[in-house]
């Protein structure tokens, strides 16, 4: 039952916003009493924390699946971006990262420290892979580029209220990041990916 509550709460939080969804809403959606929810979660904050943790786990599982498909480094980044777009496609109003930062800063800080570690590793692996494939320049300062990119991505998500707007700017950031690192072969692959997603 606990897992079912977390799953339903995650779905509602992402769709309607962390602030606006109440324990009553979750109970109503699940046809259970509010008392049942409080049996597992002493308050809404604990439920938000567990829900965000579950969503992050799912995101990283899907990312691992994409990485396992062994696309080239640039194609891989575009696939991951499309995965995020599909995950949050029902949530066009408010960015899911912007909301906890505004309403639940403590929970947000916890998520952020985990995310920065995971994203840093993911970005670093991608850059190293792109260099091996000849898509990114071999003279890159990898740590600096990792820092540039996550600063860009987190800044966009933290400061953009609208999810659709965040996704639009993120695509620009991905193109900017890729062009800054790409060899001529990499630019060719980037153009191919941009063409693919714009068709």
Automatic annotation (TrEMBL):
It comes from the Bacteria. Keywords: DNA-binding. SUPFAM superfamilies: Homeodomain-like. GO terms for molecular function: DNA binding. The keyword Transferase does not apply. Residues 1-59 form the HTH tetR-type domain. Residues 22-41 bind DNA. PANTHER family: ACREF/ENVCD OPERON REPRESSOR-RELATED (PTHR43479), ACREF_ENVCD OPERON REPRESSOR-RELATED (PTHR43479:SF11). This is AcrR family transcriptional regulator.
């Amino acid at each position: 039952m606990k897992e079912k509550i977390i799953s339903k709460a995650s779905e509602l939080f992402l769709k309607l916003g962390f602030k606006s969804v109440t324990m009553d809403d979750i109970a109503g959606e699940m046809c259970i009493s509010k008392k049942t929810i409080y049996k597992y979660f002493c308050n809404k904050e604990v439920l938000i924390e567990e829900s965000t943790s579950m969503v992050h786990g799912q995101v990283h599982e899907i990312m691992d699946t994409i990485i396992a498909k062994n696309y080239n480094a640039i194609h891989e980044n575009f696939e991951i971006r499309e995965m995020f777009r599909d995950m949050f496609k029902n949530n066009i109003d408010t960015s899911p990262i912007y909301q906890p930062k505004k309403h639940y800063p403590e929970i947000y800080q916890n998520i952020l420290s985990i995310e920065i570690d995971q994203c840093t590793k993911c970005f670093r692996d991608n850059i190293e892979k792109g260099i091996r494939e000849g898509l990114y320049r071999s003279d890159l300062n990898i740590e600096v580029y990792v820092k540039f990119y996550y600063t860009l991505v987190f800044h966009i998500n933290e400061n953009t209220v609208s999810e659709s707007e965040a996704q639009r700017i993120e695509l620009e950031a991905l193109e900017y990041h890729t062009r800054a690192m790409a060899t001529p072969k990499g630019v060719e692959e980037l153009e191919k990916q941009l063409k693919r997603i714009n068709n």
